[in-house]
Specification:
Distance between the termini: 60 Å
Shape: globular
Radius of gyration: 23 Å
Largest sheet: 8 strands, mixed
CATH class of the largest domain: Alpha Beta
Number of strands: 21
Helix content: 25-40%
Number of domains: 3
CATH topology of the largest domain: DHBP synthase
Length: 534
């Protein structure tokens, strides 16, 4: 069965599943488009060119109707945001390219839940719990052996919005009369929370937490005393605001933890989805809580996984099979369009050349194969650097035009992860934190001693694994800095012309595409490296 699925809303994407395997998931923000973008007709038409045959089923994930994709489904056949029952679906017949296809639509809520279950390693008919926490939903669910979903409780409305909006309080550029935070603010607050050095809130902070956590989500416009808060436009270097970021982060997590501890049976697996599933600190707390036999978070925990989830829902509806095979590297192949090669010295393909250059202090863009699905760079659209100097972290944040309090993640050989980070099992999708076991890796060790690690094996990413092996031979460490290869506010770079422009504009020392290295001739770091080789 061939299933083409569209998520038209926030973090828009198109996924294609054929005979139980994810063939691709193409996200609207990728190829240097605006982050968190919805899906528009040009992307839909472009992706249709990737499908060789008319699909058997076309799906649309539940969201708000948009005129530009009604040619596929019609506004009367588009499911809404909520609904967990197997009856909460719409099935109809449509025409596509002159052929009859089945149209399937189910809720945004079901898209998240089926995405997590279908992509997990849990066998079919496994009873489990699920947590959706995102900008709008904050709810626990129970899934039985027949894949019947029961809403256990709406624990807290809009946890993602409540969390992200705190960052805006201290940011002078945030409009305090707006009802929602910016999409990027939650991730920034996650980084700031690690700087907290106290756990007891002040009187004012208790009042602020009550406003943020109690009752319906209201936005800043309902908070009459906001101008009098000491954190109003205080800036993110304010030490007490950083303390409160950690206190508030713990308090929000504890709302859900206390509910789970009181109301859920222990020993079942837990699936986590929604944008808050990208909070590595919270995922690690669930993992270490002792409440669940195991925890699974898909790499597309945010809305980028909604198209996949609806496709899985449709597959289960028509075939009775809710599981799929998938790879995190299911995006589009790199586009080798024209660029000016004159600024570069070119070598390779050679892991020796690249590993030596990185060990010598060069910072390089790294492109290999198809891009990753989800928001995390996992070694196919990455910026790589040596992890041994704090100045490297500073330079990487300057290249990426982002705040210096933001951490840089490590990518590590799977067999070395226990030694350097206490990570005893694969952590392939950069979704959990671990404590560094050495002080030799300051560029990838956050202020609180943690690291948001990605492990790599010879099977999970052969190209990056090979580079890490050679780098370990040179330095003793199979660890590199790994951050996303993208223009600020844009999705992953996916064409040669954009890559070259980014490297030259942002001051990288070169780039590598499928093992072939291009070093910027004018780069001071590259010139210094050449002199040391003489």
């Amino acid at each position: 069965m061939k299933i083409l699925s569209l998520n038209p809303g926030h973090d828009g994407a198109i996924a294609f599943i054929q005979d139980g395997r994810l063939q691709f998931s193409i996200e609207a923000e990728k190829d240097s488009n605006v982050r968190y973008a919805p899906l528009y007709a040009p992307e839909i038409l472009s992706v249709l060119g990737e499908v060789e045959e008319v699909p058997d089923v076309v799906c649309t994930s539940g969201w708000w109707a948009r005129d530009h994709y009604e040619f596929l489904n019609g506004s009367d056949a588009h499911f809404g945001y909520r609904g967990v029952s197997s009856d909460d679906v719409i099935v109809s017949e449509r025409r596509l390219f002159g052929k009859s296809v089945r149209h399937f639509s189910s809720s945004h809520e079901r898209a998240h839940l089926l995405c997590a279950f279908g992509m997990s390693n849990l066998p079919k008919r496994t009873r489990c719990y699920a947590l959706i926490w995102e900008g709008k939903l904050g709810s626990f669910y129970e899934i039985d052996a027949d894949l019947n979903i029961t809403l256990v409780a709406d624990v807290l409305e809009a946890p993602g919005n409540r969390y992200g909006v705190l960052y805006g309080l201290a940011d002078p550029t945030f409009p305090k009369n707006g009802p929602f935070p910016r999409s990027s603010d939650a991730g920034k607050l996650m980084a700031l929370a690690s700087y907290s050095t106290r756990s007891t809130p002040s009187t004012h902070e208790k009042e602020l937490m009550s406003f943020l956590l109690d009752g319906p989500y209201r936005g800043w416009s309902a908070y009459k005393g906001i101008e009098n808060s000491p954190y109003h436009d205080a800036g993110h270097n304010d030490a007490e605001f950083r303390n409160f970021a950690g206190i508030f982060s713990d308090a929000l997590f504890n709302v859900f933890y206390k509910f789970a501890k009181t109301h859920l049976n222990r020993g079942l697996p837990l699936l986590i989805v929604g944008g808050c599933g990208l909070n590595c600190d919270w995922n690690s707390k669930w993992r270490d809580s002792g409440l669940f036999s195991e925890v699974f978070v898909p790499p597309v925990a945010n809305d980028s996984g909604a198209a996949i989830g609806t496709a899985i829902d449709a597959q289960n509806y028509f075939t009775g099979e809710p599981k799929i095979e998938w790879s995190v590297y299911s995006g589009r192949a790199f586009i080798a369009d024209r660029f000016d090669p004159a600024p570069y010295d070119v070598f390779g393909p050679s892991n020796d050349v690249v590993a030596n250059a990185i060990a010598g202090g060069l910072i390089l863009g790294w492109v290999s194969g198809a891009y990753e699905i989800g928001p995390r760079a996992l070694g196919n659209r990455s910026i790589l650097a040596a992890p041994f100097n704090e100045t490297t972290r500073v330079r990487l944040n300057e290249i990426k035009q982002r705040e210096q309090f933001r951490p840089i993640a490590p990518v590590c050989l799977e067999e070395d992860a226990l030694r350097w980070f206490g990570c005893a099992s694969p952590s392939e999708h950069m979704l959990y934190t671990f404590h560094a076991k050495t002080d030799a890796l300051p560029a990838v060790t956050h202020i609180n001693g943690t690291a948001r690690i990605q492990t790599v094996s010879e099977t999970s990413n052969p190209s990056l694994y090979g580079l890490l092996e050679v780098f370990r031979e040179r330095t003793g460490f199979g660890v590199l800095c790994n951050t996303s290869l993208n223009f600020n506010g844009r999705g992953f770079i996916n064409r040669m012309s954009d890559l070259s422009r980014y490297v030259l504009e942002q001051g990288l020392d070169g780039f590598v595409v499928d093992g072939r290295a291009h070093f910027v001739k004018a780069s001071p770091a590259y010139q210094s490296y050449l002199k040391r080789q003489l």
